[in-house]
Amino acid sequence: MATGGRRVVVIDDDPSIREVAAVALSAVGGHEVHTAGDGVEGLEVARRVRPDAILLDVMMPVHDGPSVLGRLRSVPELREVPVVFLTAKVGSQDISRLDDLGAVAVLTKPFDPLSLSTELAAALGWDA
């Protein structure tokens, strides 16, 4: 189990994914989790809570994950926050493109709620 106490923002347009991820990260991982349903809200939440990491959906309406990452990198206080993408698209070209954009890691949907916290911790180098 990952060390708790980290602040994580989950940005995903699917309410069920947000809820499952939030419960998994808080109940299993002991993290403080904040959620947002789109990129604009995600930026607002991230500015407010100053997260230790952001779990970001790739495909969302209006602002997709890569454009949200670009906006995050333009905000000085959020520039260094590690971003882990969450996607159902898992082709090697897609993963390579997300890595090139500055993603720390790419986790796939559907994910196992019981292992999400451990996978996130491993991707970020947090103590497990």
CATH superfamily: Response regulator
Quaternary organisation: single chain
Order of strands, main sheet, comes to 2-1-3-4-5
Question: Number of DSSP strands?
Answer: 5
- Report on the biggest sheet: 5 strands, parallel
Provide the succession of SSEs.
EHEHEHEHEH
Keywords: Phosphoprotein
Modified residues (4-aspartylphosphate): 57
InterPro entries: Bact_response_regulator (IPR050595), CheY-like_superfamily (IPR011006), Sig_transdc_resp-reg_receiver (IPR001789)
Protein name: Response regulator receiver domain-containing protein
What this model shows, in words?
This protein is of the alpha/beta class and 128 residues long. The chain has a single domain, classed as Response regulator (Rossmann fold, 3-Layer(aba) Sandwich). Helices cover 44% and strands 19% of the residues. The chain is built from five helices and five strands; from the N terminus they run βαβαβαβαβα. It has helices at 15-28, 39-49, 65-73, 92-101, 113-124; strands at 7-11, 32-36, 53-57, 83-87, 105-108. The chain has a five-stranded parallel β-sheet with strand order 2-1-3-4-5, with helices on both faces. α1 crosses α5 and α2 packs parallel to α3. The longest helix has 14 residues, at 15-28. The radius of gyration is 13 Å and the shape is globular. The N and C termini lie close together (6 Å).
